[in-house]
């Protein structure tokens, strides 16, 4: 029998600008969406660590994170 002792996901998420808004408003909306995403993980008590957060030339934001998978322990993944 096997049992998962620890697990986490490594994700790269791209938050893209809306084509229907002026550039400044779209950039602000992307930043707000990113902060909302992080707040949602905090609210649901999902452990995570931001590996890299960068703004692309087109204004979109690239987020690389490691986060807890389901409710499994994360071991040393998030240290």
Give a written overview of the molecule.
- The protein is of the alpha+beta class and 79 residues long.
- Helix content is 27%, strand content 30%.
- It is built from 1 helix and 3 strands.
- The chain has one helix at residues 23-43, and strands at 8-15, 48-55, 61-68.
- It has a 3-stranded antiparallel β-sheet with strand order 1-3-2, covered by helices on one side.
- Strand 2 (48-55) and strand 3 form a beta hairpin.
- The longest helix has 21 residues, at 23-43.
- 5% of the residues are buried.
Features:
3 strands, alpha+beta, three-stranded antiparallel β-sheet, 79 residues
Task: Compose a concise summary of this entry.
The protein is built from one helix and three strands, in the order E-H-E-E. It is elongated. The protein is 27% helix and 30% strand.
Strand and helix map with partners:
Blueprint: E1 8-15, H1 23-43, E2 48-55, E3 61-68
Antiparallel strand pairs: 1-3, 2-3
**SSE pattern:** EHEE
Query: What spatial form do the alpha-carbon principal axes imply?
Result: elongated
Strand tally is: 3
What portion of the residues fall into strands of 2 or more residues?
25-35%
| Structure classification | alpha+beta
Order of strands across the biggest sheet?
1-3-2
Evaluate the radius of gyration: 15 Å
Low-confidence stretches: none
Query: Fraction of residues in helices?
Result: 25-40%
Number of helices: 1
CA distance, first residue to last residue: 29 Å
Biggest beta sheet attributes? 3 strands, antiparallel
Report mean pLDDT, rounded to a whole number. Answer: 92
């Amino acid at each position: 029998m096997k049992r998962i002792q620890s697990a986490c996901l490594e994700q790269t998420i791209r938050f893209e600008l809306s084509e229907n808004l002026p550039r400044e408003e779209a950039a602000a909306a992307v930043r707000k969406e990113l902060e909302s995403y992080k707040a949602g993980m905090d609210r649901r008590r999902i452990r995570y660590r931001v590996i890299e957060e960068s703004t692309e030339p087109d204004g979109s934001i690239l987020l690389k994170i490691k986060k807890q998978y389901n409710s499994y322990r994360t071991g040393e993944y998030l240290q």
